[in-house]
Amino acid sequence: MNSYKIQGNIVDIFQKKIFYGEITVAEGKISSIQNLPTINYQPSTFNYILPGFIDSHVHIESSMLVPSEFAKLAVVHGTVATISDPHEIANVCGMAGVEFMIANGKTVPFKFHFGAPSCVPATIFETAGAVLDVADVDTLLQSDDIFYLSEMMNFPGVLHADETVLQKIAASKKYNKPVDGHAPGLMGELAKKYIDAGISTDHECFTAAEALDKLNYGMKILIREGSAAKNFEALIELMHEHYAMMMFCSDDKHPDSLVAGHINQLCARAVAKGIDIFKVLQAACINPALHYKMKVGLLRAGDAADFIVVEDLANFKVLQTYIDGVLVAANGVSKIKTVASSIINQFDCEPIIKGDLYIHRPAKQEIEVIEALDGQLITNKYLQDVEWLVEDDEYEMTSNPEIDVLKIVVVNRYIHSKVAIAFIKNFGLKQGAIASSVAHDSHNIVAVGTDDESLMKAVNLVIAAQGGVSAVSNTKEMVLALPVAGLMSNDDGYKVATAYTAIDKMVKEELGSTLTAPFMTLSFMALLVIPHLKLSDMGLFDGDEFKLISNS
C-alpha cells in the first residue's frame, strides 16, 4: 500500500483539542501526525479529520442485508466498525449462522466485531430453529473473531442464578471478554444484582431515571436510536455528565434508514442539543473501542488508519471514510463492491388456509389485547370487550378496523403446528394485511391483518419466498424476499432499500398504517423478553409474569 498524506483540522478527542495538521498514512497505519503552522488560521476553511464512528450494538440482520452489504451502506456515513450481535441468525441456523456472518463480513474492508449469542433460544416459550448451549458459547468465545458475550436477555435467569446463564457469563469472564446486558425497566436492587453478576452495558433504557439508576451502579448505557426503538430524546441529556459511560447504537435499523444515515445523525442531534463536541465524539468513536477492545484505530500515531473527513462538526456531512488506510467512501458514494453471497436458511412449513385463522369467542367478556407503541419495543396490555370483535358469526372473533383492534398471528416456520392467534391495537390498518419472517427472537412468521383472507395471503407470500416481508391490499400484493435465513437479502443493499421503501409506502398509504416503521414494529410483537404482552407461536405471553397466559 502506498503512503500518502492528508491535511485538515485534526480532532484529538483524547486531548480535547482541534488543530490544523497533517496525517501520514503508510501500510494501512498512521505513521505520524504533525501540527502545521498556519497564518491567520480559520478552522472553518478546512475540513475536519476524526476517528470513524462505531455502532456499539447492532443486529446486522435487521437491516435485511448481509454484513458485506450493510458495510457498503454504512461507510458512506462514516461508520467504520460495529459491535454486532448475530443473535437473530443464530436463532434460525445456530453455530452455522454465526459462522456465516463472520465469513461474509470478512469479504469487505469493514471492522465487524461479533459477539457470542447468549440466549438461543431466548425463552422456552417459543420455537426457535437452534440451540446454543454452554459448550457452544464457550467455543465461540475462544475465537479471535468473537469479542464479547452478546446481550443477556434472560435477566430473570441472572436474578434467580440459573446455572446455564451463570455458566455462560463465567465463560466470558474466563476469556476476559465483556458481557452485554438487556434488562428493560430493571431498577434498584434488582438492577444492582444483575450488574454485579458481571454485566457491563444496557441498551434497553427507555427513561432517564432508569438509565441514571444503572449508571450509578457502574453500568455503561447505550443511547439507542433505531428504526423502531427510539430512546435518544429520553436519554441524551445524561451525556452532559455521564459521557465517559455512554455510547451510541442503532440496535435494529432497516435498509431505508441506513441509506439515510447512521451514527453521524446522532452526533449532529447531540451537538444541536448543546452537548460538548468532545463528549459526543468520545461516545461515538472512543468508548466502544476501549470497552470492547476493538481492532479500530483512534487517530493516534501507530493506530490503524481508520478515520473520516467531515465538512463540519455540526452536521457531520461525511466527505471521506478510510479503513486501514483505504478510501472506502467519498462524497456520498460507497467504494465497497457487492460480493456474491451464499444462502443459508431453515424454513419448513406448509401454506396456511383460512380455517387455521378461526378463533372462538371466549366465555369471558374481556380479552387481553396487545397495544403496540410507536417508537418503542415495549407494549401495553389492553382489555377489550369481545362484543366489538364479533361480526357475522357470534362465536368467531374477527378483526375490527373501525376500532383498530386487529388479528395478529404467529405461524411456526420450523415445524407444522397450530397457528397462534391474538389481537393487537395501534397498527391502524384499514384494509389488507402485512406479514414478516423477521420476528424476534425466534423468527417465526408474524402477521397482522384486517381480515382472514388477507392474513392468509400475506403469510403464504412469505412462505412461498422462504422468508421475507409481505403486504396485501384489496387489489395488490407485494413481497420482499429474504432468502438468507428468512432475515436478509443477498442482493445489492441500495436495491433492497428501494424495495423496502416501496413496500413500506404501500403499508402506510394504501393499507393505512399509522406507525413510523410498521414492519419493524411488527417484528417485535413476538419478542417475549420485552414487556408487557407479546405473542409467540405457543400463545399469548405476559412479559411481567414471564409466562404464557393463553395457547390460542
Describe the structure concisely for a colleague.
The chain has 552 residues and is of the alpha/beta class. Helices cover 26% and strands 26% of the residues.
Kindly describe this structure.
The structure is a single chain. The relative contact order is 0.14. The strands form four sheets. The chain has an eight-stranded mixed β-sheet with strand order 3-2-1-4-13-14-15-16, with helices on one face. It has an eight-stranded parallel β-sheet with strand order 5-6-7-8-9-10-11-12. β2 and β3 (29-35) form a beta hairpin. The protein starts with a strand and ends with a strand. It folds into two domains: 52-291, Metal-dependent hydrolases (TIM Barrel, Alpha-Beta Barrel), CATH 3.20.20; 354-548, no CATH class. It is globular, with a radius of gyration of 24 Å. It is of the alpha/beta class and 552 residues long.
Secondary-structure blueprint of this entry?
Blueprint: E1 4-12, E2 17-26, E3 29-35, E4 48-51, E5 53-58, H1 67-74, E6 79-84, H2 87-93, H3 95-105, E7 111-116, H4 134-141, E8 146-152, H5 155-159, H6 163-174, E9 179-181, H7 188-196, E10 199-202, H8 208-216, E11 220-224, H9 232-235, H10 239-242, E12 246-249, H11 255-260, H12 263-272, H13 277-291, E13 307-310, E14 318-323, E15 326-330, E16 333-334, E17 366-372, E18 379-385, E19 405-411, E20 420-425, E21 433-436, E22 445-449, H14 452-464, E23 468-472, E24 477-481, H15 493-509, H16 518-523, E25 533-536, E26 539-542, E27 547-548
Parallel strand pairs: 1-4, 5-6, 6-7, 7-8, 8-9, 9-10, 10-11, 11-12, 17-20
Antiparallel strand pairs: 1-2, 2-3, 4-13, 13-14, 14-15, 15-16, 17-18, 19-20, 19-22, 21-22, 21-23, 23-24, 25-26, 26-27
Helix pairs in contact: 2-3, 4-6, 12-13
